[in-house]
Amino acid sequence: MAGGKKKKSISTLNPNVLCPFYRFEDFRNAGITCEGFLEDTTVRTKFGDPAKLREFQRKYCCTFAYIMCPLFKTIYKKYCEN
After folding, report:
1. pTM of the model
2. Cα separation of 42 and 50, whole Å?
3. Mean per-residue pLDDT for 39-45?
4. pLDDT (0 to 100) of residue 10
5. For 8-26, what is each residue's pLDDT tens digit?
6. Where are the domains of the chain?
7. Whole-angstrom Cα distance, residue 66 to residue 48?
8. Helix or strand or coil: residue 44?
9. Residue in 64, 61, 78 with CA at minimum distance from that of residue 15
10. 17-37 core/surface letters (b: 16 or more CB in 10 A; e: else)
11. Where does residue 75 rank: exposed (0-12), middle (13-18), buried (19+ CB within 10 A)?
12. Rg (CA), the chain
């Protein structure tokens, strides 16, 4: 990084998200944070660029197709095992 300054991330909530495991997004760093598959954890998915993040959101997070998301399927299992 030029000047030794670290780029700050900007995390936001997305009102269009339907997935119950979604927590927040960080467009500057092209990432989504979701509930983790272990108790009291989160999992971050980093994309190559913000356009890929938006594409993933449109495909899974913001539609009822979230049940087809690989992360959703894994996270959901922790509730089925109890």
Report:
1. 0.78
2. 20
3. 94
4. 47
5. 444 466 788 999 999 999 9
6. 8-80
7. 21
8. strand
9. 61
10. bebebbbebbbebbbbbbbbb
11. buried
12. 14
